[in-house]
Structure formats: C-alpha cells, structure tokens
Design goal:
Protein name: IS21 family transposase
Strand order of the largest sheet: 1-2
Organism: Muribaculum caecicola
Radius of gyration: 30 Å
Helix content: 25-40%
Distance between the termini: 63 Å
Order of helices and strands: HHEE
Largest sheet: 2 strands, antiparallel
Strand content: 5-15%
Structural class: alpha+beta
Number of strands: 2
Shape: elongated
C-alpha cells in the first residue's frame, strides 16, 4: 500500500500508513442485517390457517369499519 502511494507521487511515511491501517482494523464494523429467507408453503385447503394482528379500515356499504 505504501509503495503504491509512493509510485503515485504521495509523500507519506511508511509508519503513517501502518497507523492508518491499524486504525481501520480497530474501527467497529457496521452491523450487517441477517439475510431473510422466505419459504414458499403450499397446503391443502383447511389444513393450515395464518392470520395478521394488524388493523384494516374498510368502507362497506358506506359505513367505515375497522377490522
């Protein structure tokens, strides 16, 4: 790395590059989110039921209903 910087004309000491690399290695790594996996599921009718705890607002026959 230091040699490449020298070849590109940078005037920098080898020890400065070493300090910079050590600081990068010691820096906390950003937390990566775990990958999510979705498994396609297929069941016979009536075999399994899934539901959502969310609230849904609908207008049915001109009446607002929250379900």
């Amino acid at each position: 790395m230091w040699r490449r910087l020298q070849d590109e004309g940078a005037r920098i000491a080898y020890s400065t590059v070493c300090q910079y690399v050590r600081a990068l290695e010691a820096a906390p790594k950003p937390q990566e989110k775990p990958a999510k996996a979705y498994i396609r599921q297929d069941y016979e009718p009536g075999f399994r039921c899934e539901f959502d705890w969310g609230v849904l607002t609908l207008w049915i026959g001109g009446v607002r209903r929250r379900l």
